[in-house]
Amino acid sequence: xxxxMRTPTEMIVxxxxxxxxxxxxxxxxxxxxxxxxxxxxxxxxxxxxxxxIWEMCSERQSSHDRLCxxxxxxxxxxxxxxxxAQGMMPTSVVVTLLGLVVATLGVRCWQEEPQHLxxxxxxLVLLLSGLLSLVPASWYTHELWxxxxxxxxxxxxGYSLVLSYLGSCLEILGGLALTFSFHQCCKEH
Length: 189
Fold this sequence. Notes:
This protein is of the alpha+beta class and about 190 residues long. It contains six helices and five strands. A five-stranded antiparallel sheet has the order 4-3-2-1-5. β2 (about 45-50) and β3 (about 55-60) form a beta hairpin.
């Protein structure tokens, strides 16, 4: 009788990984460090331009003077990978929230037994949300060096992109874990 009271491992994994993934993709979506542009010709040597999907900031490394809302003179925000990220990253965050609500309903909380079918469906939704953020993060990474930048400058991956990647992977793993609830559902019927 005790075994039925325990929350299944796959549900615990899903409910730990997915909120962590949500936090990372949310941070990645909002912060302007998808790409860092440095060593820009005719600019101070310590100037770094940070580009996100919504914002462009410049920072002087020596004084830590930071200025956001930089003019997009090269048409960076017009680029398809940036536009796609602007649409898909917030969508992913919303879908993740929805998936977590469904997962919470399925994983028990106030009932004796977990609802395996509901938890499995939540897993599919969370898997989808992970893919929704993985696609723009991957595409942006693929196009990182092709996106407009001052000629001769140095380009590197920013932490916002890394966080978006990690968040996507955690959501996908958490979603996959929750889909294992379907297995229990099939065993019952």
